[in-house]
Amino acid sequence: MSTTVPKTPLSRGATSAPLERRAGAANGYAALLIGLGLLVVAVWRFAVLHEQAIGLAQLALVLTGIILLSGLFIQQPNEARVLTLFGRYVGTDRVSGLRWTIPLFMMKRRLSLRARNLDAPTLKVNDKRGNPVEIGAAVVWRVEDTARAVFEVDDFEQYVSIQAEAAIRHVASQFAYDEGDDLDSREITLRAGADEVMAAMTAELATRLQPAGVSVETAMLTHLAYAPEIAQVMLRRQQAEAIISARKKIVHGAVSMVEEALKGLSEREIVQLDDERKAAMVSNLLVVLCSDKDTQPIVNAGTLYN
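Below the sequence we write its predicted structure tokens.
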């Protein structure tokens, strides 16, 4: 016996917020002049014509002027007003200056279109190796689609904060903190690949914040360190790797110098050295060149064989 799953009347796309569209707001200076003109006419009828009783004409002029003036609002540059009429989205006005829209019943929500900084708190996450690291980031974002920002999410600022934290955790877990023997030499790390990590974080944030109508301009790391519980161990590991690398370079250089010394003595025929004397000379030179302490010279008054 088969069961039929009932279909939902609305799909996810049908319930998504409408895309931003231009509102039917107008220049406010004309409405300001008309409203003030109606009030002036009402006062003139009362003062000049000496109409002591307030008639219907005067009352209509005053009410009409007040209603017209109530539809005025001032909009700063890089601001927008999301307009709704009886719960229905009418449009978004992005024009700055003195503006006018339908008075009384039109709801106007102000939104800033300026770039904003989000200084994400320092998070403790596990990198690709599983080591706990502390990471922090700064995100520059702005509202791109005002309709989605208002109607798609409950609080778009809180949404940006939570999604930024989730994106930082996800990106940090995809990279190792620093290079190591278990990684390919060309693999990107959090320490060495700052530009690549920033690009990955920006792309991750753009994908997560797109439903809220928010665009991400840049994201950069502000803090990166091992967690305190393993910081000392990792510091000793880095010191050991640095010492090994330095020793390799010292030995390589010492061998090159000994080779040049033997070659120079042989070409100029300054002294003839057999294999045993060459071995002793190589040993002495390597001790002098590779030692991390000052060597004490010993003068041999005899010969190598006595």
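The CA atoms of residues 275 and 295 lie 24 Å apart.
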